[in-house]
Amino acid sequence: MDQNQLKQQAAEEAVKFIKDSMFIGLGTGSTVFYLVEALGRRVKNEHLQITGVATSSRTAKQASALGIKMIDLNDAPELDLTIDGADEVDRNFQGIKGGGAAHLLEKIVALNSKRNIWIVDESKLVTNLGAFPLPLEVIPFGVERLYKRLAAKGLNPKFRLDENGQRLRTHNKNFVIDLHLKQIDDPHALADWLDHQTGIVEHGLFLDIVNQVVVGRENGVEVLDAGRG
Ligand code: 5RP
Q: 99 CA distance to ligand 1 centroid (A)?
């Protein structure tokens, strides 16, 4: 099976966690694409009353086109469940997200949700975080100063570029800097430091957030419980 089939498998298992009348956060990325497809089918075939909140315009557009009712987070109660992808998940159920530059909206939605499920193919499971570059969403004003500070701390920053070689702009017109760290020994300490750097709007460390991880594996789907209730 290729990686996309494993992603699809995880997504189709995770969609079973969605029940009628739920308010659902929908993440962003290629794995979530399969989830939204599967949810669209369920909404149509089972006449489910699901209300979704999207973490990107891509997801919002796809979900609306499939007949899923979408609303703004400002108009929603606390979400019952958010299902999203991830770039890395370690053995303590800590994660890196933001490969699709949507981690700011994804974190806001995740933290306004009673439960969070991540859907991944097995290549995303790691012992330690950090092989995947850690994304930061940063304010363009004064960004060269911030970049120098990150470099001076040995965090190996690189601006993320778009397909035209220009600095990528996020949904909120910010830049993305990826930290090429190879290994993050203490994710909480790094998150705490990043949280205190003015100019960084949000980093892609998603710590103590996920409840369950649905993993697409060669030999079937596995649901891992993070033990967070
Ligand atoms: C977007 C994300 C995605 O969830 C993450 O990059 C995984 O993407 P994919 O499902 O395409 O592998 O964090 O910002």
A: 5
Within this chain, do residues 121 and 38 fall inside the same structural domain, yes or no? yes
CATH number, position 99:
3.40.50.1360
Pair (160, 70) in one structural domain? no
> Helices (DSSP H) in 69-215: which residue ranges?
103-111, 143-152, 187-195
Domain total of the chain: 2
CA separation for the pair 154, 50 (Å, rounded): 46
H-helix or E-strand containing 13? helix 3-14
Residues annotated as part of the active site: 106
For residue 155, pLDDT beyond 80: yes
What is the C-alpha separation between 224 and 90, in angstroms, rounded? 12
Q: How far is the CA of 210 from the centre of ligand 1 (A)?
A: 15
Based on the fold, state whether residues 59 and 96 are members of the same structural domain.
Answer: yes
Q: 143: domain range? A: 134-197
Q: What pLDDT was estimated at residue 229?
A: 73
Read off the pLDDT of residues 52-68 as tens digits, 9 standing for 90 and up. 999 999 999 999 999 99
Quote the ligand 1 centre to 155 CA distance (angstroms): 22
Ligand 1 pocket mutation, candidates 4, 8, 55, 87, criterion most atoms within 8 A of CB? 87
Q: What is the pLDDT of residues 89-119, one digit of tens each?
A: 999 999 999 999 999 999 999 999 999 999 9
Judge whether 20 lies within some domain.
yes
